[in-house]
Write a structure and sequence with these properties.
single chain; mainly alpha; Helix Hairpins; 5 helices; NTP pyrophosphohydrolase MazG putative catalytic core domain-containing protein
Length: about 110
């Protein structure tokens, strides 16, 4: 999937989610809730990485697989893409700019 495809999908997903939750007329509330959702998904990614490192309680390791990390990374990217779509951020341009800046330090 390309970034353009992700951005287009995320824009449609944002519209669908807003309509499903009755928030199509309250963009600020939708953004606030989506931002919270991003935080939730980031927390789940942290948990998956801890499990990957075998640094979780034993009951949280039951049934863990590395596919869980991939799934949580994808959830974080999806939430961020939806936020980008709803705030008018060009995802490809934003990533290119950030990569260029970060590359100076590594």
């Amino acid at each position: 999937m390309t970034l353009d495809q992700l951005a287009a999908w995320a824009a449609g997903q944002a519209d669908g989610l807003a309509a499903q939750k009755g928030l199509q007329d309250d963009g600020d509330l939708f953004l606030a809730l989506q931002n919270s959702k991003l935080g939730e998904e980031a927390g789940e990614l942290q948990g998956a990485v801890l499990a990957y490192l075998n640094y979780q309680r034993d009951h949280k390791l039951d049934g863990f697989s590395t596919a869980d990390v991939a799934s949580e990374v994808a959830d974080v990217v999806i939430c961020a893409a939806i936020l980008a779509a709803r705030t008018g951020v060009d995802l490809g341009a934003a990533l290119a700019d950030k990569i260029e800046k970060v590359s100076r330090y590594v």
